[in-house]
């Protein structure tokens, strides 16, 4: 199964702030193929530029790829949106 992380969940994981995630969410993330939408990466950039996160977008993507084997989704965005809404 594939799990797309939302912006906040991805940042919390990258910052090792996992207490903000429910046990159910963590369990799901542990079992799934974790993906990050390119749109979420853009949101990382915005949050970094406005000093709302201390990690640069590249750092977040790298940390998540090495720590939980996530990947930035390379599907075209309309396909990602279609998958997300079921």
A few lines on this structure:
The chain is mostly helical and 86 residues long. It has 5 helices and 3 strands; from the N terminus they run E-H-H-E-H-H-E-H. Helix 1 crosses helix 4 and helix 3 packs across helix 4.
Per-chain topology:
Elements: E1 2-5, H1 7-14, H2 23-31, E2 33-36, H3 38-49, H4 57-67, E3 71-72, H5 77-85
Helix pairs in contact: 1-4, 3-4
Q: Your description of this structure?
A:
57% of the residues lie in helices and 12% in strands. It has 86 residues and is mainly α. The protein has one domain (2-85). Strands 1-2-3 form a 3-stranded parallel sheet. The model has no long low-confidence stretch (mean pLDDT 93).
Please name the defining characteristics of this protein.
57% helix, mainly alpha, 3 strands, 86 residues
**Overall 3D geometry?**
globular
Give the helix level as a range of percent: 55-70%
Would you count the extended β strands for me?
Answer: 3
Which structural category fits the helices and strands? mainly alpha
Tell me the major beta sheet: 3 strands, parallel
Number of domains: 1
By oligomeric state, this entry counts as single chain
Distance between the ends:
13 Å
The largest beta-sheet arranges its strands as 1-2-3
């Amino acid at each position: 199964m594939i799990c797309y992380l939302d912006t906040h969940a991805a940042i919390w994981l990258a910052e090792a702030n996992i207490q903000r995630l429910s046990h159910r969410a963590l369990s799901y993330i542990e079992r799934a193929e974790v993906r990050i939408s390119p749109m979420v990466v853009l949101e990382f950039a915005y949050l970094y530029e406005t000093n709302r996160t201390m990690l640069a977008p590249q750092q977040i993507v790298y940390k998540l790829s090495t720590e939980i084997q996530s990947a930035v989704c390379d599907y075209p965005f309309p396909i990602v949106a279609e998958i997300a809404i079921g």
